[in-house]
């Protein structure tokens, strides 16, 4: 690729960053790094009525947690700053005026009430009201008014918007990296508002101006912006600017494959839709994020990469560096990507196995007061035995509690299965064997206990099942000899004696 790659992730700070937005950021990040380019964060806060305090910092924190910090943007390497659109307000009016001067845009003085009446009138006739070539000469705008009347309205400070003048009877030929060639009949396009009566640009104008001034080479964004592609191409043409290359990512669908993954649907299934916790200050509702739900950032990045993209091989586990090296926009699918909650857990389980046991032990200890006085090295050894069965750190206690506290009861079904005639006598003899083992290691336990079972021609199940029941309280857990070694000789004997006395 010969051109200098510069891509931007441009979210609006109107609330927490949806996981779909994180995927958009990821694909931009991967593309930039693949081509030694620049990953830019721009905050598109032109809609001040929907601005939510804390949302901007949340976006930055989410990107950092995922391991994909931006190279350039708000408060960082501000080569083309400022990077908040609200702070670039002074720029946009001159470009809107330039479009009016060139005949590509016009003033529209129609009130909201008037436009609403037009819409209702069309609905009553079974039609859809579109403000464009077929009716703009009949509406209250600078195309239908004399120059004198236009100037009078402007001098009087009458509210107006600036609309783009869509061409009539033309066919636009657009290109999208993912979707290929697209043809659009301009007669179906409406004359979009570019500049609002409150003095702020709409997304369409600000987006184009900023992408041009920041020298954006590729626009990689969600499918929901595909209907705006025609307008954006026309704006570049109207300004006489070279357009960037476009790539519109497929939607992330609900697990059923029907409809876009929504917060409401995800909540019903217990699926997070935000990377980090978010507290809605208006409703005091807390939405759990992937981080707080126990997902590792590597797992989140890995499963997000596969929502719409496929490397074309059987490989599914990719670290960030591998994703950068393999990523290709041409391998992104057009169809929506179905979100699979079980697959996300599968990824997390994999990355659980790669985590450092000492770090996991620290996190585990911090979440359980029962472990406050337990040696961290001991907890780390326990995790080494049980984490292969765990998907989340929150699974650890259920999988390991018997390493820290002796059983207070015994599973009824397991007890009936493990305790038979003669079991009490076998366990009493086993206690003697354990007490006689001088060097208490896993190897010596295996040698002595298995040797006793074999030499006496005892069925292994007759010994190992009640032994496990005594240690764990159920017929589950890691290797029995590993359990005995960690809890120690005295505790192993004590648990066996207790079970014999009770059962």
Automatic annotation (TrEMBL):
PROSITE patterns: AA_TRNA_LIGASE_I. It is an enzyme of class 6 (ligase). InterPro entries: aa-tRNA-synth_I_cd-bd (IPR045462), aa-tRNA-synth_I_codon-bd_sub2 (IPR020751), aa-tRNA-synth_I_CS (IPR001412), aa_tRNA-synth_I_cd-bd_sf (IPR008925), Glu-tRNA-ligase_bac/mito (IPR004527), Glu/Gln-tRNA-synth (IPR000924), Glu/Gln-tRNA-synth_Ib_cat-dom (IPR020058), GluQ/Sye (IPR049940). GO terms for molecular function: glutamate-tRNA ligase activity. Its EC number is 6.1.1.17. Residues 368-499 form the Aminoacyl-tRNA synthetase class I anticodon-binding domain. The gene is gltX. Pfam families: Anticodon_2, tRNA-synt_1c. Catalyzes the attachment of glutamate to tRNA(Glu) in a two-step reaction: glutamate is first activated by ATP to form Glu-AMP and then transferred to the acceptor end of tRNA(Glu). Residues 4-346 form the Glutamyl/glutaminyl-tRNA synthetase class Ib catalytic domain. It comes from Jejuia spongiicola. The lineage of its organism: Bacteria, Pseudomonadati, Bacteroidota, Flavobacteriia, Flavobacteriales. This is Glutamate--tRNA ligase. It is found in: Cytoplasm.
């Amino acid at each position: 690729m010969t051109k200098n790659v510069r891509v931007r992730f441009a979210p609006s700070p109107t609330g927490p960053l949806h996981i779909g937005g994180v995927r958009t950021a990821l694909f931009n990040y991967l593309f930039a790094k693949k081509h030694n380019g620049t990953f830019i964060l721009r905050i598109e806060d032109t809609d001040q009525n929907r601005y939510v305090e804390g949302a901007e910092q949340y976006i930055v924190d989410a990107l950092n947690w995922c391991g994909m910090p931006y190279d350039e943007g708000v408060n960082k390497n501000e080569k083309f700053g400022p990077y908040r659109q609200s702070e670039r307000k002074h720029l946009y009016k001159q470009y809107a005026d330039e479009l009016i001067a060139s005949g590509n845009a016009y003033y529209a003085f129609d009130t909201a009430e008037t436009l609403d009446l037009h819409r209702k009138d069309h609905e009553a006739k079974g039609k859809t009201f579109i403000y464009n070539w077929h009716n703009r000469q009949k509406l209250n705008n600078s195309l239908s008014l004399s120059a004198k009347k236009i100037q009078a309205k402007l001098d009087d400070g009458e509210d107006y918007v600036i609309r783009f003048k869509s061409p009539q009877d033309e066919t636009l030929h657009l290109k999208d990296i993912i979707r290929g060639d697209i043809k659009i009949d301009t007669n179906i396009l409406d004359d979009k508002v570019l500049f609002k009566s409150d003095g702020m640009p709409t997304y369409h104008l600000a987006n184009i101006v900023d992408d041009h001034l920041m020298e954006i080479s590729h626009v990689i964004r969600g499918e929901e912006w595909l209907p705006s592609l025609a307008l954006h191409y026309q704006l570049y043409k109207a300004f006489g600017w070279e357009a960037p290359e476009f790539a519109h990512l497929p939607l992330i669908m609900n697990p059923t494959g029907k409809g876009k993954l929504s917060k409401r649907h995800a909540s019903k299934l217990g699926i997070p839709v935000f990377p980090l916790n978010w507290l809605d200050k208006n409703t005091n509702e807390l939405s759990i994020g992937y981080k707080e739900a126990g997902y590792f950032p590597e797992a989140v990045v890995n499963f997000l990469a596969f929502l719409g993209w496929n490397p074309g091989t059987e490989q599914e586990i990719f670290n960030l560096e591998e994703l950068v090296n393999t990523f290709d926009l041409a391998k992104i699918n057009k169809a929506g990507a179905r979100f699979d909650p079980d697959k996300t857990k599968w990824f997390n389980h994999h990355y659980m196995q790669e985590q450092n046991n000492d770090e996991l032990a620290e996190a585990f200890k911090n979440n359980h007061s029962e472990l406050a006085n337990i040696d961290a090295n001991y907890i780390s050894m326990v995790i080494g035995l049980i984490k292969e069965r765990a998907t989340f750190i929150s699974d650890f206690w259920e999988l390991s509690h018997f390493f820290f506290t002796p059983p207070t009861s015994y599973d009824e079904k397991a007890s009936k299965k493990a305790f038979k005639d003669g079991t009490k006598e076998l366990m009493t003899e086993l206690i003697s064997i354990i007490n006689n083992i001088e060097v208490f290691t896993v190897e010596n336990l295996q040698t002595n206990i298995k040797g006793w079972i074999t030499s006496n021609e005892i069925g292994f199940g007759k010994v190992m099942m009640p032994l496990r029941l005594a240690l764990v309280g159920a017929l589950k857990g890691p290797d029995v000899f590993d359990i005995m070694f960690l809890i120690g000789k005295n505790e192993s004997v004590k648990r066996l004696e207790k079970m014999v006395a009770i059962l």
